[in-house]
Every structure is written in C-alpha cells, then in structure tokens.
UniProtKB/TrEMBL annotation:
Protein's name in the database: small monomeric GTPase
Organism of derivation: Nothobranchius furzeri (Turquoise killifish)
Gene name for this UniProt entry: NDUFS1
GO molecular function, one term: G protein activity
SUPFAM superfamilies (alphabetical): P-loop containing nucleoside triphosphate hydrolases (SSF52540)
Catalytic activity entry: GTP + H2O = GDP + phosphate + H(+)
EC annotation from Swiss-Prot or TrEMBL: 3.6.5.2
C-alpha cells in the first residue's frame, strides 16, 4: 500500500426493522464474533480501520436500533452517513416490506438517487421460517438500485465482511472525481462496446 496516500473516512448507517440482526451484524464485523443477545438498545457507533483494495479506510458504523425515533433524528443520522446497510430478516416479511420506505426517505434526505446502499437479507440459517425468497430480495435491490447480499450473521463472518466491504467500495468510488470512478468507467465501457457492436452490425 502506498504510505503517502491519505486514510479515507467512511461513515456507514445500519437501518432496518426490529430484531433483524443489525447489532449482531455490526458486532460480528468488528469483533468477528456472533453474540446472541445484547443488553443495549441505544444507538452505538463502532469505529475501526480496514484496508479495502489497498486503500486505508477509517470506518465509523452507526447502529440505530429500531424504534419510533423522530423523523428529525433519523434525518440527521442519514445526513451524517456516506453509505447505508438496509437490513431485513428473511423470516420476517414486515421487515422486508419496510425497506422501500426507508430507501425513499434516504434518497429524499440525500437529494439523490445514487446513494451507496447495500440491501442485506439476514438469517438464512432459519430457512424453515423463510417468508421472503431470494428472488424477491434480488428484485427489490434492483428496483431500489442497491447492492444485495443474503447471509446469516450467525453462521458466517465472511459474508458479513463481504457485505460491508461492498458498501465501502461503493462509498469510496463515489468520492472519487467522476472520470476516476469504477462505476463511471464501467458505464463508459458498456456504452463504447454497445456502439462498437452497432457499427460492426451496420457494416454487414
Ligand atoms: N438465527 C439467527 N439469529 C440471528 C441472526 N442475526 C441476529 N440474530 C438474532 O436476532 C435477534 C435480534 O438481533 P439484534 O442484532 O439485536 O437485532 P436488531 O436489528 O439490532 O434489533 P433492534 O435493536 O431491536 O433494532 C437476536 O436474538 C440475535 O441473536 C442470524 O443470522 N441468525
């Protein structure tokens, strides 16, 4: 890693309905351990440093427990954050149907549609109690323009890390000047290859 490069601050907000495993996910990411029950039910900010794609990242993750918090306090947390993990439980349909409302509120507060967001479908170890299919999750993520991960916080730390890292990459990418963004480069590349295919077709 280039030591002259600056550390990138990244602030993530974890949101979702009650009991979806938001705290378990944060604790799993930070400590690598799954801890079944938590005493605290207030908001907590976790801090740690990670290296993502050779970029040093100073991470803050805010875990907001589900409660009837005022729109104003939710709004200020959304303004604070650079990226969002929206968590639902595959065993709790209500937590899934809540997601679009949250995403709309985030987009409205951030005044944009390209807000870095990853949708996390948790508790896949409880397959027998599944109420939301993976296809439904994938479709919602596509409709809301989010990344998507199905995982079990209880079962595997790697999938949790992959979800958080995916979100960090989206945030870091968005902070780059437009021509340096991976997403921008991909869009340009796709547009060029479409154009090339068209012009080849026209030759025939
Ligand atoms: N089986 C299973 N249980 C899980 C998983 N993740 C979390 N849980 C359990 O689900 C319950 C809720 O987890 P929390 O992390 O407290 O959920 P939360 O979303 O932070 O809940 P609020 O603070 O009420 O908003 C706890 O009993 C966890 O042990 C998982 O992947 N599988």
């Amino acid at each position: 890693m280039d030591s002259s490069r600056k550390t990138v601050p990244v602030k993530l907000l974890v949101l979702g309905a009650h009991n979806t495993g938001k705290t378990a996910l944060c604790v799993r990411f930070i400590t690598k351990r799954f801890i079944g029950e938590y005493d605290h039910k207030k908001e907590v900010t976790y801090r740690c440093n990670r290296v993502v794609d050779q970029e040093a990242v100073e991470l803050e993750i805010l875990d907001l427990p589900f409660k009837e918090s005022s729109a104003a306090s939710l709004e200020s947390s959304i303004c604070w954050a650079d990226g969002f993990l929206l968590v639902y439980s595959i065993t709790q349909r209500f937590s899934f149907t809540e997601i679009p409302r949250l995403k709309t509120f985030i987009d409205k507060t951030k005044h944009g549609l390209g807000v870095p967001t990853v949708l996390v479908a948790n508790k896949t170890d409880l397959e027998i109690g599944r109420e939301v299919t993976m296809e439904e999750g994938q479709k919602m993520a596509k409709d809301l323009r989010c990344g998507f991960r199905e995982l079990s916080v209880a079962e595997t730390v790697l999938a949790v890390e992959a979800a958080v890292f995916q979100l960090i990459r989206l945030v870091v990418d968005q902070q780059r000047p437009l021509p340096d963004r991976r997403s921008y480069m991909l869009t340009v590349r796709h547009a060029l290859s479409r154009k090339l295919t068209r012009s080849k077709t026209m030759q025939w």
